[in-house]
Amino acid sequence: MLFGLVWGMIWTLITGLTSYTNSVVFFCICRALHGIGLAFVLPNAIGIIGTLYQNGSKKKSAVFCLVGAMAPIGAALGSIFSAVISEKGHWPWAYYSNSICFAILAVATYIYIPNIPRHAAPEVTFDWLGSITGVTGLVLFNFSWNQAPAVGWDNPYIIVLLIVGFLSILAFFQIEKRVKYPLIPKEIMNSHILLILSAVGFGWGSFSIYVFYFWCLLMNINGWSPIHTGFTYFTFALFGVIAAFSVNVFIRRVRPSYLLLAATCAFLIGITMLSQTPPHQMYWHMLFPQMVILSFGMDISFPAASLVLSEHLPKKHQGMASSLVSTMINYSMSITLGFAGTAEAQILKRNTSTYKGYQAAMYVGVGLAVLGCILALVLHTCSYIWPHQEEVDLQIHKFEDDSDVLENSEPVLHPSRGGDNSTAKV
């Protein structure tokens, strides 16, 4: 976690310094490297929380909800601060200030975050071949979809990279079947977890389209300034915090599948309302209600999914909970913009209306949100067909954690035997 913060601090600083190079390519490379630092921070933070707090405890639920509440607060503050700097000052300071925040967090992490004992077996090795093929496949597949709207699908290198990326992903799955220590342990990949991740991925993919075209609509069509548009994010901040902590109230009273179904429905309602929002309409008519609804979508889905996965995994896989959720969210948010951009580009070839192109992209988001709702409904239905599966999983992982404690404990003299050679495990 400390490494991720230091890495993010360095590359955020370098990103700001790219203003002196006037190179868009170098700027994009620095932004990508900056993201590696964040990819280290969140899974490790969730893993630490999952290890420190007992499964099923109210404190653990509250802390997970607090982490979820930070997202809308950070989005609102970042939007306002960067908008003010870009309009009133020198834009690189948006990155310099971010680098300063990373430095402060790194120092606080070094001082206050406790060392967590290793729960994985010491002989576990890293799957380098699976990592290389998996990352290569995902990157090339993503790049192809996001580059195609700009250069066109008739460009040969787009098709070549798409095929190579797809083959790399197939190779990754074949490698993972054969290696002793795969990147994603076989025992945690079941239909229950796959349904959760898929529903969350489709929901957040539609939300990514919403966010991008929300700004496009307000700034390019309605003519709003960045500051004016950024201030609308305070709606996300206020209602996002309320939504995140509502998970702590409901998670012990209703099935988690209820919460995920409600979250995906919120994603669907929000993107559908944006697709039907006419240009130049007053903010309070449709934009404000849809932002309130979407606040519950994003800030119920992440804490609920992370909490459910964390409580389904033993301590040695706690970091995997957030890693799976955050990877699915970030990747789906990235690649779905390529889907939406392709739809927009195709409409603009036949229609000169910019708004019609935006609307076509939003309809792609509606379709993704519908898929998320369907998967969440399937998950909810399955929770009734196999009503005790979650309890069985929790008992299995509790037994595994207790077994780890027994295996790692030292033998001590039994107090009732006066120092004889009999031993007992503690």
Automatic annotation (TrEMBL):
<dbReference type="Pfam" id="PF07690">
    <property type="entry name" value="MFS_1"/>
</dbReference>
<keyword id="KW-0812">Transmembrane</keyword>
<feature type="transmembrane region" description="Helical">
    <location>
        <begin position="258"/>
        <end position="275"/>
    </location>
</feature>
<feature type="transmembrane region" description="Helical">
    <location>
        <begin position="321"/>
        <end position="340"/>
    </location>
</feature>
<feature type="domain" description="Major facilitator superfamily (MFS) profile">
    <location>
        <begin position="1"/>
        <end position="384"/>
    </location>
</feature>
<dbReference type="InterPro" id="IPR020846">
    <property type="entry name" value="MFS_dom"/>
</dbReference>
<feature type="transmembrane region" description="Helical">
    <location>
        <begin position="287"/>
        <end position="309"/>
    </location>
</feature>
<feature type="transmembrane region" description="Helical">
    <location>
        <begin position="360"/>
        <end position="379"/>
    </location>
</feature>
<feature type="transmembrane region" description="Helical">
    <location>
        <begin position="193"/>
        <end position="213"/>
    </location>
</feature>
<feature type="transmembrane region" description="Helical">
    <location>
        <begin position="62"/>
        <end position="81"/>
    </location>
</feature>
<feature type="transmembrane region" description="Helical">
    <location>
        <begin position="93"/>
        <end position="113"/>
    </location>
</feature>
<protein>
    <submittedName>
        <fullName>MFS general substrate transporter</fullName>
    </submittedName>
</protein>
<dbReference type="GO" id="GO:0022857">
    <property type="term" value="F:transmembrane transporter activity"/>
</dbReference>
<dbReference type="InterPro" id="IPR011701">
    <property type="entry name" value="MFS"/>
</dbReference>
<feature type="transmembrane region" description="Helical">
    <location>
        <begin position="157"/>
        <end position="173"/>
    </location>
</feature>
<keyword id="KW-0472">Membrane</keyword>
<feature type="transmembrane region" description="Helical">
    <location>
        <begin position="233"/>
        <end position="251"/>
    </location>
</feature>
<dbReference type="GO" id="GO:0016020">
    <property type="term" value="C:membrane"/>
</dbReference>
<keyword id="KW-1133">Transmembrane helix</keyword>
<dbReference type="InterPro" id="IPR036259">
    <property type="entry name" value="MFS_trans_sf"/>
</dbReference>
